[in-house]
Amino acid sequence: MLIVFSTVFFFILILFFSLLQGSHKNPKRFQWRTEVTEFILVGLTNDPELQIPLFITFFLIYIITLIGNLGMILLILLDSRLHAPMYFFLSNLSLVDFGYSSAVTPKVMAGFLMGDKIVSYNSCATQFFLFVAFITVESFILAVMADDRYAAMCKPLHYTTTVKTNVCALLAIGSYVCGFLNAFIHTGNNRRSFCRSNVIDHFFCDAPPLLALSCSDRHISEIVIIFVVGFNDLFSILVILISYLFIFTTILRMHSSEGRQKAVSSCASHLTAVSIFYGTGTFMYLQPSSSHFMDTDKMASMFYAIVIPMLNPLVYSLRNKEVKSAFQKAIGKV
């Protein structure tokens, strides 16, 4: 129901936004002007002495992200003990982390190493689209994972009959559909005039800095962003909170302290990932453009766009006994 409702909602929102654009007195207000064919990304810093150290730092983060996420996917595929719904969703989470990290980090590294801070309109739109798509998919995957934990801990006798392979596949596909629909909405929302400047005070093409350059009326765009992002966050967080409310109620009813500890441990990694993801994302997007301070936004963006994809596989591998056991088994074979 979560995914079906979300998909229907996004279709309605796309229709609404299309009608809104079509009924506007001056439809050219929502089109990008042909004069702007490229943007200049300011980046994190212009200090020449920091370029190489920052490149090395981001290169190491990206390598850890690639190895961690692709390694997690490979580990889940190869180890039959991890062929369970929870790890199926975890593999999708790793794929999404790899996706939105790869949409941002290589361009940032190129800026540090070669000073290549110019990005074409098409490249900027593509980067923005992919980032929004994958970040939205992650929010729904995290919600689905919480629901999976609820089914495993609160309905253990019915778990194998309710959480089947086809159900898991539909939930994953639905998450991707919602993510890419959301990306279409946001990309359409940023089809506007840029008459002030083509210099983006950021290190990648994101919604707040793009809105700051617009000479069009930003009121509708800000409403769309707050509404869509607010829906994604609120709906996913509600699913997570309700799931964990039932989970914690079940844990409190357990008579064995060992059982309680095991149950809490199985949820700890997911709760950590949820807290990091939603904390930084909400801070970044759910505020009006007048309240944005670009230096603060850059730090928040760097954390959720570059650092979080590195942290997720580490969080799950360090706090999950089955993943650690599978990893040690794989290392032993090598």
Question: Which helices and strands appear, and what pairs or packs with what?
Answer:
Elements: H1 2-22, E1 38-41, H2 48-78, H3 85-114, E2 118-120, H4 121-154, H5 159-162, H6 165-189, E3 199-200, H7 207-213, H8 219-252, H9 257-285, H10 294-319, H11 321-333
Parallel strand pairs: 1-3
Antiparallel strand pairs: 1-2
From the helix content, strand content and strand pairing, which structural class follows?
Answer: mainly alpha
Number of strands: 3
| Terminal-residue CA separation | 44 Å
Uncertain stretches: 1-34
Strand content: under 5%
User: What is the radius of gyration computed over CA atoms, rounded to a whole number of angstroms?
Assistant: 21 Å
Strands of the widest sheet, in order across it, are 2-1-3
What value does the average pLDDT take? Answer: 80
Series of secondary-structure elements, N-terminal to C-terminal: HEHHEHHHEHHHHH
What does the largest sheet look like? 3 strands, mixed
Q: Count of DSSP helices?
A: 11
Explained architecture:
This protein is mainly α and about 325 residues long. It is built from 11 helices and 3 strands; from the N terminus they run H-E-H-H-E-H-H-H-E-H-H-H-H-H. The protein has helices at about 1-20, 50-80, 85-115, 120-155, 160, 165-190, 205-215, 220-250, 255-285, 295-320, 320-334, and strands at about 40, 120, 200. A 3-stranded mixed sheet has the order 2-1-3. Helix 3 (about 85-115) runs antiparallel to helix 4. The radius of gyration is 21 Å and the shape is globular. The N and C termini lie far apart (about 45 Å). Mean pLDDT is about 80; it is low at about 1-35.
